[in-house]
C-alpha cells in the first residue's frame, strides 16, 4: 500500500507551499505602476506588452492569463495542497497518499508552465526552486505507493466504463483544442497566431505531449488492472478539475483587461475543459469512495 511515511516528502511539500505562495502572491499583487506599451516581435507583429509588476515583459494577454492562474493557485490549489498534506500526515493511507501525490502533480504542471513559459523576471529563481521541489516531490510520492497492491484496495463498485470514456475524451480534447492552431500556422507558413513575444507555447507541449498521452496510457493500464493506472488516474482527475476551475478565472481576468474573446473560442477552449472538469469531479468522488481505507 504505502512503503513508508516519507518525511522527506512532507518537507518538500512544505517547500512547495512556501514557494508557490511567494510566486502566486507576487504575480497577483505586485505592481510597480508601469503602463502597457507596443512592441514589434521577431515576426514583425506589433504586440501589446503588459508593462507592470512581475509580468512587465510579458504580452498583455499572457500576463492577464498568468494573473488568473496565480489567483487560482493562491486561493484554491495551495489550500488544497495544505489540506492534502495534513490529511496524509494524520492518516498515512492509500487514499491520503494518492490525493497528496495528485495535488503535487498539479504543482509540477504549474511550476513547469511558469518556469518555461513566463518571460524572465525577478522571480526566476523562485520558479526554478518551485519546479525542482515539485518534480522531486512527485517522484518520491509516486515511489512511496506500492502500485502492485493498489488494485486490491479499489472496490468493484468503481465504474470503469465511465472513467474509460473520460480518459478517451480527455486525451482527444487536448489535441482537438490545440492542434488546429499549429496546423494553421504550418499551412500559412508563419508562427503561431498567439506566439506574441515567446519562442513556443508551453501549454501545447504539456497538454499534447504529456497529459494527452498519459490519459491513453492510464486507459491501457486500467484495462490491465495495473495499480499504476489508478495512481495516474487520480493525478489526471485532480489536474482536470483544477484546470476546469482555472480557465474560467483566467477568462475573467482577460475580459476585465479588455481582451475580446470570440464566442467559438470560449466554447472550444474553455467550455470543453469545464465540462471535463465536472465529469472528472464526479469520478474523483467515486474513486475516492471506492478506495478502501
Automatic annotation (TrEMBL):
InterPro entries: GPCR_STE2. The chain crosses the membrane at residues 9-31, 71-87, 99-118, 124-142, 163-182, 202-222, 229-249, 261-282. It comes from the Bacteria. Keywords: Membrane, Transmembrane, Transmembrane helix. This is Uncharacterized protein. It comes from Neobacillus rhizosphaerae.
Amino acid at each position: 500500500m504505502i512503503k513508508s511515511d516519507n518525511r522527506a516528502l512532507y518537507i518538500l511539500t512544505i517547500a512547495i507551499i512556501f514557494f508557490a505562495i511567494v510566486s502566486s502572491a507576487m504575480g497577483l499583487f505586485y505592481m510597480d505602476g508601469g503602463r502597457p506599451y507596443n512592441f514589434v516581435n521577431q515576426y514583425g507583429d506589433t504586440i501589446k506588452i503588459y508593462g507592470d509588476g512581475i509580468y512587465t515583459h510579458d504580452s498583455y494577454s499572457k500576463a492577464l492569463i498568468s494573473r488568473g492562474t496565480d489567483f487560482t493557485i493562491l486561493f484554491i490549489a495551495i489550500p488544497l495542497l495544505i489540506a492534502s498534506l495534513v490529511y496524509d500526515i494524520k492518516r498515512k493511507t492509500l487514499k491520503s497518499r494518492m490525493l497528496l501525490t495528485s495535488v503535487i502533480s498539479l504543482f509540477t504542471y504549474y511550476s513547469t508552465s511558469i518556469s518555461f513559459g513566463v518571460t524572465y523576471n525577478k522571480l526566476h529563481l523562485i520558479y526554478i526552486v518551485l519546479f525542482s521541489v515539485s518534480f522531486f516531490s512527485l517522484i518520491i510520492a509516486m515511489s512511496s505507493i506500492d502500485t502492485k497492491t493498489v488494485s486490491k484496495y479499489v472496490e468493484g463498485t468503481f465504474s470503469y466504463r465511465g472513467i474509460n470514456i473520460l480518459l478517451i475524451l480527455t486525451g482527444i480534447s487536448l489535441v482537438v483544442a490545440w492542434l488546429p492552431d499549429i496546423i494553421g500556422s504550418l499551412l500559412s507558413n508563419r508562427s503561431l497566431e498567439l506566439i506574441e513575444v515567446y519562442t513556443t507555447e508551453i501549454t501545447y507541449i504539456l497538454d499534447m505531449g504529456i497529459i494527452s498521452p498519459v490519459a491513453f496510457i492510464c486507459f491501457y493500464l486500467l484495462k490491465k488492472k495495473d495499480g499504476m493506472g489508478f495512481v495516474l488516474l487520480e493525478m489526471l482527475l485532480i489536474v482536470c478539475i483544477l484546470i476546469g476551475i482555472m480557465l474560467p478565472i483566467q477568462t475573467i481576468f482577460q475580459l476585465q483587461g479588455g481582451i475580446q474573446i470570440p464566442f467559438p473560442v470560449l466554447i472550444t477552449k474553455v467550455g470543453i475543459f469545464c465540462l471535463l472538469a465536472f465529469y472528472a469531479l464526479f469520478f474523483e468522488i467515486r474513486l475516492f469512495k471506492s478506495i478502501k481505507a
